[in-house]
Amino acid sequence: MPPAEMARDLLRELKMPSLAMLLARSSRSAHQVFDGFSRALPHEYWLTRQFDSDNSPALATSAMRSFNLPAETGVWFILQPVHLHISRDHLVLTDTRQLQLAESDARALFDIVQPLFEEIGKTLVYGDAQTWFMRADDWHALRTSTSDAACGHNIDIWMPKGPRERDWRRLQNEIQMHWHAHAINEQRETRGLKPINSVWLSGGAEAEKTSEANTKFEEAFIFLNERNSFTALTKKQIPITSSADIFDAKPQHGLLVLDNLIGPALAGDWSEWLMCFQSMEERWFAPLLQALQDGRLDKLAITISHNTVYSTFAISKSSLRKFWCKPALARLAS
């Protein structure tokens, strides 16, 4: 969803008749408003159904399973190598999508700090360049925030809070000192890339506990057009490049996550946001509308969100007969 103050101008630029038809002839089945200081973005809460939690969704152990990493016991957190930059009198978290962190650099940075974790009795495990995992059983009460929720803001508000938060900050400071002015970061800066100068903690989860909501997601198919953090929600993944791949798979239930608007929105790059959004019309919304019309799809729910709101709109073949509802994108601003 576009920000309210820019919605009218942005929506005027979009020519998306299929999405306009789907939204106009749908019924809103869910709507929730969050405050601007939530520890996860609305769609992150929606995907995990953890609306009553003042914490980042407990995804660490699910994420580890998606990397085929064992997590039988203990409390695990997701740890991301990040870049913090100074803005006036506070530190701001940069969107990790902008970092272009190579596997070789990430591995080297990981190896540099792994002994710090061993010294304090914590286990550090490598997933990929952007996703590491830490076991810290005695830090189970820490309230953390997702990196997307904190991105672009004063990090003080979104830093881990609760018992042992000083222990976490002490470890974070040690990591920052070990990476400061390291040859890897110097080489990154010569290539015009931001240095990796800190880590971000989120997603704390007890290995012995799997929420009912996550179990339901793991039993369903999830369709992704590109790898993102929500692969953690399921063991069953089908790579797709077009809507035809969805219908060919013939799932009873499917979830398509279109996440390529997140980066431009967090960066405030509304020109890129418009181009990415417009590209979804032909690739996704027109085929989905056609599938409803010809009976290949029984029903469709579209969930849209921005940083404080999410809404879900339900559409079926019969609801498309509401000829009195003129196609419009207005619900993207509602």
Automatic annotation (TrEMBL):
Q: InterPro entries from the xrefs?
A: Regulatory_RpfE (IPR016631)
Please give the name of this protein.
Regulatory protein, RpfE type
